[in-house]
Amino acid sequence: MKSMYSISGRRLRRRKECKSMAFVICTERPFEKKSLLLVQTLRHFGGALGAMAPIVSYSPRPKAMPSDSVVRQIAALDVQLVFEVLNSRWADYALANKVIACAHAERNLNVDAVVWLDSDQIVLREPSALQLPPDIDAAARPVSFKNIGLESDHEPSDPYWMKLYEIAGALPRRKVETTLGHEVIWEYYNSGLIAARREAGILCHWEQVMNQILESRILPPPGIFFVEQSSLSAAITAKAGRVDILPIEYNFPINWQWQEYLGDYSAVVKNSTTLHYHSLFDEGRWRELLSPENGLPLPTEKLEWLRSRLEELNL
Q1: Do the Cβ atoms of 180 and 258 come closer than 8 Å?
Q2: Please, where are the H alpha helices in the chain?
Q3: d(CA 149, CA 7)
C-alpha cells in the first residue's frame, strides 16, 4: 500500500473509500511498538471500517520521534504520518500530545468525525459504534472511578472544575455513571477512546481549554496528570449537544481487577471491541496474559494472532 505523508500547511488528504471518519493516534519512540500493534489490530480485526478508514499518526515532539523501522512498518499499513513539531509548548507534558493532535486533525482532516485511540490498546472487532449518528456530537466511555470527578459541590476538586467550566464557557448539565465505581458524577470521560463530530468543534475547544487551564496554574488536587482528560470533559459539556455512551466493550481497561466489579467479566472480554491494556503487555508479561490455558478469555484464533505479533514486536 502507498503511504501518505503530511506537508506542513497543507490539508491532510482523506481516502475515498471511507469519508465519514478518521482514526488518530500518536506514535513516539517509548511506545512506538504499541502504536504499530494497535494499527495492525485495527487493520486486521476492525472489519471494513478498520480496513478502509484513514489512520493518521502524529509524532509531535522532535526528541521522541519513532524509529525508521517502525515508521516503515506503520506506513506500509497505509497510515498517514505527521512529523510536525506541534507540541513544543507543553513538551514535558506527554498527555498534551493527544489534545494537540486531535485539534490539528479536526482543523485539517476532511472527514465528518475524528476518532482518537490511545496506543496501548488493541482492536478486536469492527468499531461500528464509533460511527456517530447525525444527532450525536461525541461518543466515549465514562471514567472507571470518580477520582477527581464531582458528585456535588464543596468537594476537593470543586474549585478546579469551576475554573475549568469558566474557561470552557459551560455549566455542568449532564451526569454519567462511572464504569467501575458506579458513582453518579458530572460528565467525566475517559480520554483513551473518543469520537467527535468535526463540525461541533469539540477537539479544538479541548485544546483551548487545556492551554488556558495550564496557563492559569490551577490544577486538580493530584496534580497535572488529569488535566487533559478533565479538559476534554469540560469541552464536551460546552460543545456537545448529545453524547453517546459507548458500550462497555469499548475501551475496556483490563489493568483493573474487573472481576471484583463486573460479574460478566469473561463475556465482556470475549466480546470486546477494544481492550485497553496499559502496561500489561510490557516486558513480556503478555505471554501469561495471552496464554491459552489461563489468559484472557479471547477466542483461540485471536490469542494466537496476538501472540504471533507480539513475538515479532519483542515487547
Answers
A1: yes
A2: 32-45, 47-52, 68-75, 96-108, 158-168, 202-216, 227-239, 265-270, 286-289, 300-313
A3: 40
Q: What is the pLDDT along the chain (315 residues), one digit of tens a residue?
A: 233 333 233 344 433 333 589 999 999 999 999 999 999 999 999 999 999 999 999 999 999 999 999 999 999 999 999 999 999 999 999 999 999 999 999 999 999 999 999 999 999 999 999 999 999 999 999 999 999 999 988 899 999 999 999 999 999 999 999 988 899 999 999 999 999 999 999 999 999 999 999 999 999 999 999 999 999 999 999 999 999 999 999 999 988 666 667 778 888 899 999 999 999 999 999 999 999 888 899 999 999 999 999 999 998
Where do the structural domains in the chain lie, given as residue ranges? 142-189+200-246, 252-313
Helix residue ranges per DSSP H, 54-182? 68-75, 96-108, 158-168
- 234 burial class (0-12, 13-18, 19+ CB within 10 angstroms)? buried
The owner of cell 503478555 is: 286
Tell me the pairing of strands 184-186 and 193-197.
Answer: unpaired
pTM (two decimals):
0.92
Distance CA 145, CA 179 (A): 7
Q: How far is 270 from 268, CA to CA, in rounded Å?
A: 5
**253 — phi, psi (to 5°)?**
-85, 105
Per DSSP, the residues of 145-188 read S-TT--SSSSSTTHHHHHHHHHHHT-----EEE-TTT--EEE--
- Name the pairing type of β-strands 193-197 and 113-117: antiparallel
